Predict the 3D structure of the following.
Amino acid sequence: MEKLCTFLTLYSLLHAIAMPIAHAKSIDEGPEAVQEWFKNLPNAKEKVTKLQFYFHDIVSGKNPSAITVAQSNSSINSPTMFGVIRMMDNALTIGPEPNSKIIGRLKDLWCSFYGGNSLLMTLNFVFGHGKYNGSTLSVLGHNPILHKYREMPIVGGSGVFRLARGIATASTVWFNVTSQDAVVEYNVIVLHY
Ligand SMILES: *[C@@H]1O[C@H](CO)[C@@H](O)[C@H](O)[C@H]1NC(C)=O
Ligand SMILES: *[C@@H]1O[C@H](CO)[C@@H](O)[C@H](O)[C@H]1NC(C)=O
Ligand SMILES: *[C@@H]1O[C@H](CO)[C@@H](O)[C@H](O)[C@H]1NC(C)=O
């Protein structure tokens, strides 16, 4: 029951971010506006924001969203794909289904497999809807892909997420070993102003 409630809360939250806000004021990113924002920081209240979304990692087929851009010759036959670097531009959606509503992109993701089924994750969540439209969150962390939950630090953000810090928890919903396509759930909790 508690789990269901948590899920429903997250689900409503998600709907809140998925709904485009008709007159959402875009945040002023000019240098003067940013300076002003910092000047007002002592009066700003810290907020906690929780987000849940899914990313679709399509490696196979005609339109992959993730491509291998480099691989070391000496470890080309490594069963753990040691030395592979992949770049991704994956859809972020509100649900795990392939046709689920897109609310952003996961960009510039570099995954370097460094053995033992672990990845170095460098990624930006780029939100494209509602009050978070244009705002980003950045993750830098260690991803042991076979673990049920992988906790990675949110190291910063932009737009409404300026000076954000928090945790992104990844868990695999679906993975096809043959094609390497995957759907991964992300639960994100951030402190920001
Ligand atoms: C990588 O391996 C292939 C096949 O063995 C070889 O033809 C190629 O020259 C190698 N490249 C480098 C940079 O070592
Ligand atoms: C997000 O912002 C961009 C650029 O300001 C705008 O073109 C786009 O329509 C917005 N999208 C939504 C869903 O609000
Ligand atoms: C997994 O991927 C393989 C190769 O692309 C494909 O033939 C197979 O149908 C996929 N399995 C599922 C359950 O989608």
In short: The longest helix spans residues 2-18.
